[in-house]
Write a sequence for this structure.
């Protein structure tokens, strides 16, 4: 086979591969991202809406932030009149669907701020997905008694 | 003779109590509570704890105020702040009436929740919120009194831990009588409605 044939084929193949193997993060859009900042060095809950525009399901596996030493994906529940928290290994975001990490449900728990987070700060949080891809999002620091991302 | 007199006193006391109870029942006639009515089914508010200024306090110190009792802990990043933020909105919606109410946030994690931590915490939510901590046995007694429980979950790798706790909010009138119970299925509107009524009843009606 001559180079004249193989090069275009190779290029086309690469393009197709890129399309099929677009990462989960490339199809996920983050919005309404905020952190409930608590006094002192108490762990903070972080919330975000994730929308998957892709044809394949995506899954949120975890997060990290330069502003916090540790971050965990959690779920709150209040079955049987008891409030408890449990660790979540992955949270599926259906194809062309969305999930909300919101108070009283799924949330990120951010622990040990590396420097004090002030109300109004934008905190970078990197979300990691099932295929190892990542998405950076700015989370707005909101006061303890905030009820959502908006003022 | 002495026994006889004691008996008479007891009888009088019971009669008086009975009349009070009846009066209490009648008073509620026509009042449409939207939360769960627990009047007569739960004991009066009673505790000996330490407030967020480090002062020893008892339930008597809050007589004359409508009390919203909630169990939680400050290292709880999601549900406790959510509940307290919602209670703050409720208090705001009540306007000046809210001055007749106190949110008593009782720590189920006294090992980490010192008065200092509690003070900063409750004040981040509402000026009418009080943080109560104290000896574990006192907190257990208060929790059991209202048929709730809390459990310290196993430590994580980093040595931190979570505490499972009751999700209910207990409402007491100004006389320390248990009146209403709010659960996560109740709405903010229902809470505002009932608190409005409870605060309007006053302590001497």
């Amino acid at each position: 086979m001559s180079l004249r044939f193989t090069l275009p084929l190779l290029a086309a193949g690469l393009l197709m591969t890129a399309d099929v193997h677009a990462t989960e993060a490339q199809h996920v859009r983050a919005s309404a991202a905020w952190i409930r900042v608590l006094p002192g060095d108490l762990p903070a809950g972080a919330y975000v809406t994730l929308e998957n525009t892709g044809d394949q399901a995506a899954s949120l596996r975890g997060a990290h932030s330069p502003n916090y030493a540790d971050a965990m994906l959690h779920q709150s529940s209040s079955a049987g009149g008891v409030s408890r928290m449990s660790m979540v290994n992955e949270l599926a975001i259906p194809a062309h669907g969305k999930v909300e990490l919101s108070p009283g449900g799924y949330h990120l728990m951010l622990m040990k701020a590396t420097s004090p987070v002030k109300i109004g700060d934008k905190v970078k949080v990197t979300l990691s997905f099932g295929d190892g891809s990542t998405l950076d999002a700015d989370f707005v620091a909101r006061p303890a008694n905030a009820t959502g991302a908006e003022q | 003779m002495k026994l006889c007199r004691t008996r008479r006193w007891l009888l009088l006391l019971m009669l008086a109590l009975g009349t009070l109870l009846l009066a209490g029942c009648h008073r509620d006639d026509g009042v449409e509570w939207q939360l769960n009515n627990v009047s007569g089914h739960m004991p009066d508010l009673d505790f000996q704890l330490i407030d967020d200024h480090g002062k020893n306090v008892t339930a008597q110190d809050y007589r004359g105020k409508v009390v919203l009792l909630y169990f939680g802990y400050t290292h709880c990043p999601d549900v406790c702040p959510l509940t307290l933020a919602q209670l703050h909105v409720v208090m705001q919606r009540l306007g000046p009436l809210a001055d007749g109410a106190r949110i008593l946030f009782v720590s189920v994690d006294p090992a980490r929740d010192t008065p200092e931590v509690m003070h900063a915490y409750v004040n981040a939510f509402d000026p009418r919120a009080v943080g109560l901590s104290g000896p574990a046995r006192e907190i257990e007694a208060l929790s059991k009194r209202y048929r709730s429980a809390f459990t310290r979950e196993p430590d994580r790798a980093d040595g931190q831990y979570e505490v499972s706790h009751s999700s209910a909010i207990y409402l007491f009138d100004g006389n320390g009588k248990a009146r209403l119970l709010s659960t996560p299925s109740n709405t903010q509107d229902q809470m505002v409605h009932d608190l409005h009524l409870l605060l309007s009843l006053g302590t001497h009606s």
